[in-house]
Specification:
The complex is a heterodimer of chains A (287) and B (278). Chain A contains 2 helices and 12 strands, in the order H-E-H-E-E-E-E-E-E-E-E-E-E-E. Chain A has 287 residues and is α+β, with helices and mostly antiparallel strands. Chain A has a 9-stranded mixed beta sheet with strand order 1-9-8-7-6-5-4-3-2, with no helix packed on it. Chain A is globular, with a radius of gyration of 24 Å. With 278 residues, chain B is an alpha+beta fold. In chain B, 12% of the residues lie in helices and 25% in strands. Chain B is built from 2 helices and 12 strands. In chain B, the strands form 2 sheets. Chain B has a 9-stranded mixed beta sheet, with no helix packed on it. In chain B, strands 10-11-12 form a 3-stranded antiparallel beta sheet, with no helix packed on it. Chain B starts with 8 loop residues before the first helix and ends in a 19-residue tail after the last strand. At the A-B interface, helix 1, strand 3, strand 4, strand 10 and strand 12 of A face helix 1, strand 10 and strand 12 of B.
Chain lengths: 287, 278
């Protein structure tokens, strides 16, 4: 009788099991869990290693440095500057990766999903199925992202997700201080996403932004910490729910706590009410 | 009779096999062949209506609320449909699937991704139980369980229960109301059509105090044929012409001015403006 060795039998079982399991998730870094940005307290800056605003030392062209300075003056006067978030528009790429709310990364063979429930319920898709850039892509705030898993240390496991993002929609700014991206929206964002080699609960994203508002590619590194809770709470963020900003025409106003329209800037004119029949109705009561 | 040794060849072979299987399981934690193939882009079949409102088993109180809502909508108002302000439709209305849906199955969580107003869901399938403190959200808190109902060794139905849902919500844009106490419970059975694997069904039973009995409807979705579908981005705030000031809803005209949404609607009170400056 032919004897089958225990070793060959075990190997056969492993191969059969491998055939049955199409997704070898052991090849990928363990990115499961809830990731929260590591940044100084307060409103986060695009480069977490530097102070906000001018302290970011963004390599802006003279034209866009002037745009940035005008934005700072508007902010100082009570305006909203260039940050579009007050209208509940999403930050888009690259500030999306500031992770204003907790982030989840879901790795599948064809697509890596990044879920961040901030202004917009973002599910960024990074296609890793080997596709090339499609001929036609409709621009989106999150852009269109193609990724490739790299194995820099030849361990048989992927270590880095390299991403390129194009076709990004505007208006956008790098952060709430209003550092502008070019209005042509030809931004290209390149990222290297990887776990810290010393601490697998720290994630790094090296982000290089190529944009016509910049004199050179601008690279920053964002860092995230994994929650120790295996069943974290995922908060829901609905921007529209308590947004006191009202945008009418080119002007931004506030709605007061008692429900009346109020100016956002000193001396701001009220909205034009030409379409109302002033003779028939008085002013609307707020409550 | 000699006793069998636990260290004999058979036991060794068994132990080796068990070890091999364990290694294989460890190396490949996610056996996706056990789950139905839900990949792709799913579009709803039919209009985004919950059901014929005449069939809704509303209580008398909520039937009256629904009728008043219809009257308000006929006069140019929004009635009890809250989504015009870019609030999420919430559960169960999310499953009307206003924009294409993707279902991402992982061992612990099934993600339902719908890029509409704010419609994505997490369905936890890690065996958790209801915890005591859950902050209500529009999508609610969903616990799921995979079921192998035909006994073929593969899961075929995802059974979901959703609680802790926030309001205000309606079933659809007709304003068909859910109870303001937000104690809604939604039970779902999600499964592929047996005859056509490109059709997906969701049997949804809603238990709500606005209803006289649990109300079950079936939603059906069709899978797109393209393996690389286009996922459009929907940003509700972009191009939303509704402006809410206090309890009044206005429109923005094409030339950027505020305008009434109903006949003889008064303009907003401008008491906080220095009118002399205009």
């Amino acid at each position: 009788m032919r004897r089958i060795s225990i070793g060959s039998l075990a190997a056969a079982v492993i191969m059969a099991a491998a055939g049955a399991h199409a997704f070898d998730d052991a090849k990928y870094p363990d990115l499961k869990g809830q990731w929260t940005r590591i940044s100084p307290p307060g409103q986060p800056a695009f480069d977490p290693s530097k102070p906000r605003g001018r302290g970011q030392q963004a390599p802006l062209t003279p034209e866009y440095q002037a745009v940035f300075e005008a934005n700072l003056a508007d902010l100082a006067a009570g305006g909203e500057g260039l940050w579009p978030g007050y209208t509940c528009r999403p930050p888009g790429m690259p500030p999306l990766m500031t992770a204003y709310e907790p982030m989840e990364i879901i790795v599948t063979p064809d697509t890596t999903y990044i879920r961040i429930d901030h202004i917009h319920d973002t599910h960024r898709r990074i296609f890793t199925d080997g596709r090339n850039w499609p001929v036609e892509v409709e621009p989106a705030y999150a852009g269109y992202s193609i990724g490739r898993w790299a194995e820099p240390d030849q361990t048989g496991r992927y270590g880095v997700l390299e991403i390129e993002t194009r076709h990004i929609k505007g208006p956008r700014a790098f952060d709430a201080s209003g550092i502008p991206l070019h209005r042509d929206n030809n931004t290209v964002v390149k990222e290297r996403l990887y776990l810290d080699t010393a601490d697998p609960n720290i994630l790094h994203d090296e982000i290089t932004v190529i944009d016509n508002a910049l004199t050179r590619p601008w690279t920053v590194t964002k860092n995230y910490r994994r929650s120790p809770d295996p069943r974290p709470v995922w908060p829901e963020y609905i921007c529209a729910e308590n947004n006191a900003h009202v945008h009418i025409g080119q002007e931004s106003y506030f709605v007061s706590a008692d429900g009346y329209l109020m100016p956002a800037k000193k001396g701001q004119a009220p909205p034009d009410l030409r379409y109302f029949n002033r003779r028939e109705g008085g002013a609307a009561q707020s409550k | 009779m000699r006793e069998r040794s636990s260290t004999g060849p058979v036991a060794l072979a068994t132990a080796a096999l068990a070890a091999a299987l364990t290694m294989a399981a460890d190396a490949r934690a996610f056996d996706e062949t056990k789950y139905p193939a839900l990949k792709g882009q799913w579009d709803r079949v039919g209009a985004p209506r919950w059901a014929d409102p005449r069939t809704a088993p509303l209580t008398d109180e909520y039937r009256a609320i629904f009728e008043a809502n219809l009257k308000d909508q006929a006069a140019g108002g929004q009635g009890t449909d809250p989504t015009y302000t870019c609030l999420s439709p919430g559960m169960p209305r999310i499953m009307n699937v206003y924009d294409p849906m993707e279902i991402v199955v992982t061992p612990d969580t099934t993600h339902i991704l719908i890029q509409h107003i704010h419609d994505s869901r997490r369905i936890f399938t890690d065996g958790r139980d209801w915890t005591e403190e859950i902050t209500p959200t529009f999508s609610g808190y969903s616990i799921g369980q995979w079921s192998d109902e035909d006994g073929d060794g593969r899961y075929d139905v995802l059974i979901i229960e959703t609680r802790h849902i926030k309001g205000p919500r309606s079933f659809d844009s007709t304003g068909l109301p859910l109870h303001e106490d937000n104690e809604t419970v939604v039970k779902e059975r999600v499964y592929l059509d047996k005859a056509d694997p490109n059709l997906l069904h969701d049997d949804i039973t809603v238990i709500d105090h606005a209803l006289t009995r649990p109300w079950t409807v079936n939603k059906t979705y069709r899978r797109a044929k393209t393996p690389r579908p286009v996922w459009s981005e929907a940003v509700c705030a972009e191009g939303n012409l509704h402006v809410v000031i206090g309890s009044e809803n206005y429109f923005l005209s094409a030339d950027g001015h505020l305008m009434p949404t109903r006949k003889n609607q008064p303009p907003p009170d401008l008491r906080y403006f220095n009118q002399a400056r205009k």
